[in-house]
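hey so i finally got around to running the thing on that chain from the lab meeting. sorry it took forever, my laptop kept dying and i had to restart like 3 times. anyway pasting the input first so we r on the same page abt which one it is
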Amino acid sequence: MTIFDEEGQSEWDNNDYSRDFKWLGQRRDTMKTYDASRMMGQLNNNFSYHSPKDDQNERYVKLRECALQLAVEIVVRTPQSREQSLALTKLEEATFWANAAIARNE
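ok and heres what got predicted. didnt touch it at all, straight out
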């Protein structure tokens, strides 16, 4: 599903959501060095489902396994604390972004 076309027009322009996306056109006019059509393509890619292909699923699994091993080490070797919680959260984020790098860029 494509939300924006290359001119930045939303398929929602004629319904209740259109007012929420008006800022996009206004901001695009003020950002002279920014390529709006490239941004629309990136948004479409980032907010689309990417079904696994080739060996991607195996790589996702391997990344999650490695992250789980590190998460266990963090829990076992550090005291329960805010810092431990943040370390685990950041590890979850890193795993997500690593998987997103595969899904979005291949």
